[in-house]
Amino acid sequence: ESQRPSSTAFIDSFRRKNEASGDAVALRWEWIDWERMSSNMKAAVLVAEDIEFFSHNGFSVPEIRAAVSQARLTGEPPRGASTLTQQLAKNLWLSPSRNPLRKVKEALLAVQLERTLTKNRIFELYLNVVEFGPGVYGVESAANTYFGKSAQRLTRAEAALLAASLSRPSRWNPHLMGSGYVARADRIEDLMTRHRNYLERHVGFAPERLAAAPFGSDIRN
What we know:
221 residues, mainly alpha, 3-stranded mixed beta sheet, globular, disordered C terminus
């Protein structure tokens, strides 16, 4: 479907918590179509969150195995190991809970998404609803909030910073440049270089942009 969602489970949860606490954190949520999104942003999110996205059917077997192995070693519940499709299902309809039942629902919904939507549509929805900071949902809102520009014009370094924030959106964003966060963004840029041919094929990432200025120099002016 091409229809834009009127809300998501995560956005509804934010609104409820905001109202209950009396906080005045504004909700920022703007939409941008797939064709207008910067290929830098698509590439950065792919290497940061799900490099196998265009070749799997909603699940990453290597990631699941790694999560199970880590759980056996630490004695803790398995980490997410979620693909972009699973993350989208969770954002649209479920909750951040790590309840095993929620993971089953997430898996079933991911299967349905993969059966009914194209990969580009799933990716477009994900980038438009995922959280990039308190009250900031979608890449267009993030680009405007942190860089004062549309997601259509994001540079490689800016895209890496936004992609790096996805794992810890409540603590990491371009307005809070901690060392761990910057290291994560640098790692994402390295991965974009390493996988440039794959990224060019699937999201139109332009290898020639890899000759850009060193990290951070184009976002501090």
